[in-house]
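Appendix C reproduces, verbatim, an entry submitted by the partner laboratory led by Prof. M.T., so that reviewers can inspect both the input and the predicted structure.
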Amino acid sequence: MRVVRELNTLPQLAGLRLAWGELLCETADATWFQSLEWLETYWQFFGKGQRLRVLLIEDAGRVVGILPFVVGIEFRRVGRVKVLTYPLHGWGTFYGPIGPDPTATLEAGLKHLRQTPRDWDLLELRWAARGGIGDAIVQSLNTAGFDYVTSRGHAAAQVELIRGWETYWRSRKSHWRNNVRRSVRQLSTCGEIEHVRYRPLGAAANDADPRWDLFDACVELARRSWQGSSRTGTTLSHASVRDYLRAAHTAAAKSGAVDLNLLLLDGQPVAFAYNYYYRGSVYGLRSGFDASIAQQGAGTVLMAQMIEDSCRRGDHLIDLGPDYFDCKRPWLTRLQPADQYTHYRAGGLRAQALRLTHAVRDWLPAKVLSSASDKRNLPKGTKAPSRKTETSMRN
């Protein structure tokens, strides 16, 4: 019989490192963001004001699934709302339960949440890839007796590489292939081109050097690119996230999850792509190039060389993340949508007020305008994911 044990502090999780790692290896489409190392780093910088709720699903005393949650304060139209969700904070594109059977893990975890005191107004399962984990969430919410609303989250531009470089390259439009070749020729007239890729194996293989020289080169390039003037506060060069990103880099190097790319021109960095890597999947966190040589196409050259090198290494996927589709369109092979599933706490005044607000919003004409705007930002020939909201009638 499966039982659920809840842990609420990081020290309590320390003894789970081996079991967590083994379960992550059995998790379909897993990313480094689902690792304990990520959670420890995340909590160090974003844990203030939140409550940790990690649910362990055990069978005969053995952990067979892990469901990490946090309860945090978010500001909505009705005011401050307590939200129970995954510990991702928007840094990655997808998240889900850890273990080989996500449906069973979700069902056990959600039943536990239903039977324990509710310290939250909203239960929001975000960053769920449509299909796979999304189907598991729907089944689990219904089984646990939670009513819910489904809404569209984001869509991630992805590059599938399972057929190899030649097949991928032939699938690109001819005018784009010519553009890449032209960029290589133009950049070559300025100096010798070299692609440097650093992907340490991790502490377990005695290969965990952070190579701060390479990381700092990426930060400096971010400062010299358009990102330097960005006001998002989330780029590599922004002081507001500098300490977090350096701590995450250290943790990723120890985990064997760093994938750092630099394009050198006569030995000097001119473009970068800073990624995280896990089991053949690459997640593009940030990229940029020296604005002073933008016309030579350094960013384009680096992307082409990085994808070709990934094919040689046997990588099967590069996730370029959501947004900025204009520059990602020539590279992507698919647009993977993510949905979120929201349950509003029964009897919670703010939760029900927010539910009413969302219901009214979904009926407004502005929804049509928003949908049209989303479609304009999608790659040409890519069908926009539906914005239709679905409500389960279970109580």
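Residues 366-395 have pLDDT under 50 and may be disordered. Additional entries are available on request from the coordinating office.
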